[in-house]
């Protein structure tokens, strides 16, 4: 499973800092993000975090905490973990058996009255 994380420096100064990701017990982070990240002034960056799924049919809380100079932020997202290949779609075509139905309809305006 791959999760993108966006890092944005909207200040006029270069910043350095770290990003810590906690994935809980149902996911395992395969690569560490790093403690010495650098963002130039007005830079936007994206990190792709790779996780190994330990348990399916559950929910996992992903917590990303960043600390860049005087700025700190923490974001928590809950994601559903489903089995590989889910959702599954199956399309099929063919013909139904040929069946004839007879019905009769009686309408007062179409019936002759004597």
Give the topology:
Blueprint: E1 2-8, E2 15-22, E3 27-29, E4 37-39, E5 44-53, E6 58-68, E7 71-81
Antiparallel strand pairs: 1-5, 2-4, 2-6, 3-5, 6-7
Q: Which descriptors apply to this entry?
A:
114 residues; mainly beta; Immunoglobulin-like; four-stranded antiparallel β-sheet; three-stranded antiparallel β-sheet; elongated
Give the overall shape: elongated
CATH superfamily: Immunoglobulins
According to CATH, the fold-level topology is Immunoglobulin-like
Secondary structure: helix percent: under 10%
Report the β-strand fraction as a percent range. over 45%
User: Can you tell me the CATH architecture?
Assistant: Sandwich
Which structural class do the helices and strands define? mainly beta
Regions with little confidence, pLDDT below 50 for 5+ residues: none
How many alpha or pi helices? 0
Mean pLDDT, nearest integer? 86
Number of strands: 7
Radius of gyration (CA) equals 29 Å
Order of helices and strands: EEEEEEE
CATH class group: Mainly Beta
Strand order across the biggest sheet? Answer: 4-2-6-7
Describe this structure in words.
This protein has about 110 residues and is mainly β. The chain has a single domain, classed as Immunoglobulins (Immunoglobulin-like, Sandwich), CATH 2.60.40. The chain contains no helices and seven strands. The protein has strands spanning about 1-10, 15-20, 25-30, 35-40, 45-55, 60-70, 70-80. The strands form two sheets. It has a four-stranded antiparallel β-sheet with strand order 4-2-6-7, with no helix packed on it. Strands 1-5-3 form a three-stranded antiparallel β-sheet, with no helix packed on it. It starts with a strand and ends in a 33-residue tail after the last strand.
């Amino acid at each position: 499973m791959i999760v993108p994380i966006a890092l944005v420096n909207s200040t006029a100064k270069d910043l350095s800092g770290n990003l810590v990701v906690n994935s809980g017990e149902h996911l395992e982070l395969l690569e560490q993000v790093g403690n010495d990240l650098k963002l130039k002034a007005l830079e936007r960056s994206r990190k792709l975090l790779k996780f190994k799924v330990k348990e399916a049919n559950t929910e996992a809380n992903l917590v990303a905490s960043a600390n860049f100079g005087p700025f700190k932020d923490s974001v928590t997202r809950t994601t559903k973990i489903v089995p590989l290949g889910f959702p599954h779609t199956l399309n099929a075509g063919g013909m139904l058996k040929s069946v004839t139905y007879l019905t009769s309809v009686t309408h007062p305006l179409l019936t002759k009255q004597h």
